[in-house]
Amino acid sequence: MDRAEVDTRIRSIIEPFNKKGIAITDDTTFAGDLEFDSLTVMDFVAAIEDEFDIIISMNQQAEIEKFGQLVDAVNDQAS
Amino acid sequence: MSEGIMQSDQPTEREGDTPDLFSKFDETIALREGLLASGVEDPFSLVMEKVLSPTRAICNGRDTILLGTYNYMGMTFDPDVIAGGKQALDDFGSGTTGSRVLNGTYQGHKECEDALREFYAMDHAMVFSTGYQANLGIISTIAGKGDYIVLDIDSHASIWDGCAMGNAEVVPFKHNDIEAMEKRLKRIPEGAGKLVVLEGVYSMLGDIAPLAEMVKIAKEHGAMVLVDEAHSMGFIGEHGRGVCEQAGIMDDVDFIIGTFSKSVGTVGGFCVSNHPKFEIMRLVCRPYVFTASLPPSVVATAATSIRKLMTAKDKRDHLWKNSQRLHSGLRELGFRLGTDEPQSAIVAVIMPDLEKGAAMWSALLTEGLYVNLARPPATPANMTLLRCSLCAEHSDEEVETILGMFERAGKAVGII
Hints:
The structure holds 2 protein chains of 2 kinds.
Chain A: H1 3-14, H2 38-52, H3 58-61, H4 67-78
Helix pairs in contact in A: 1-2, 1-4
Chain B: H1 26-37, E1 48-53, E2 56-59, E3 62-66, H2 79-92, H3 107-120, E4 124-128, H4 131-142, E5 148-152, H5 157-165, E6 169-173, H6 178-187, E7 194-199, E8 201-202, E9 207-208, H7 211-220, E10 224-228, H8 243-246, E11 255-259, E12 269-273, H9 281-284, H10 286-289, H11 296-309, H12 313-333, E13 346-351, H13 354-367, E14 369-370, E15 372-374, E16 384-389, H14 396-413
């Protein structure tokens, strides 16, 4: 799996959580642009973890603010 | 005479709008001000001027039934408990002024730990100065860098703070979701240390964990298991040992954390364990070492209370009866509750929003009933809850009176 594929799969997972239909780039922030609250984060992270069969611990989540950072983090673990 | 002298000193009054370190609290300040502006009594600064019994107090000048104290077994005014505390105060003084590992371990602390070992039929017991510190200390000490903590997302603040204080990887799963927990355990890298943290009773909704299934799975994946039984000790299980006892898994759990500030009726926390190396915790657990030990009177009241709780079957039965009656009564009145069936001595009444919740809380207080108002972020799913915790000392009549108060307040506020 390459980064582009990870990107595509995360984009499809994010869709139901992207209530306002924001255009997503690598710089899109979860808390600011997408307005994710803690409950949304939990469901979203669980969906990503299940899709890629990985763990994104709270410690890692604290480092991830933007969409691009998430793709990188998942790509590191999934490849 | 100069005009100047008539001018009183006028220090610049700070408006409070200059950004500083307190700016991060502005949202909370505004929320609180908005709430108080609606005319309700401040739910977070209630004063009990007089405490008459485990179930009654004078609150803000009113005779009030207490339905939000976690004083489940009503031990706070037990004559033996009080006598034990007074004796210790006379014999050992008002405080230890020292850490458990230096000058702060008295005879009473050992006796309290003996009582706990007997109560749980376990090899080791360690008493902390609060329940919060017990979770903070044990979790942060045993799970270190490179280890994984798998925990329920609705865990108590003391558990989260224990995780934050240590350096382990923290992996939460959806509340009481066995499959979600198992998936996460499966994904933990080979060889990493694993700690699963669960609670017997979750205090917000009063629901219990499926401990039999969860602990079995945790053990299959080689994890150590810590269960917080703060809200079940004394009440749930044949001997009052908690949900672990009820689920028949006392031997599979590595650590049970508990508190003296609920059923035991005083303050303090503890951890019991059968782990052969457990005693080393006394030297390596910082929240145990770097704080003063509990006062002699407190450990004496705790030890007396714990011993009485071992055989308090009648009280357990009455508390169970009270919980069932309040739960069914509130349901019949049309309130939405946290659980479909009563699972503990906590009955959580779900409010439509914070404004209605605060109005209802205030209306109940005017009726002469105290319950806990729980609001986000402490609550799951951002709910506003009126949390009721019953006491074995509530009489059958009192429970009926409480239901009447809920009916009147609920209609006045427009919730039912």
